[in-house]
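REQUEST FORM: STRUCTURE PREDICTION
Request ID: SP-0412
Submitted by: Lab K.M.
Chain count: 1
Length (residues): 75
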Amino acid sequence: MMISIALRFIPTLLEETDKIMKAQQARGVELGKNEHFFARLKNSVNILLPLILTSLNRIDTISNAMELRGFGKNK
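STATUS: Completed
RESULT:
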């Protein structure tokens, strides 16, 4: 069950990454190879932090739904 949920989560994660990257580019964050290494590293944090937070929120929602449906109650 965990593997199927993880595989289901990959396309959602890619879509969310694309949305965050577009939002950061609209705010003027440069993501191209023209930037120095440390600037790209700093800008990647601007993408990874919201991605991690939204992923944790989504994981919490899924785990609550599974718990409410009684998943794993009987061994």
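NOTES: The chain has a mean pLDDT of 87.
Reviewed by: T.R.
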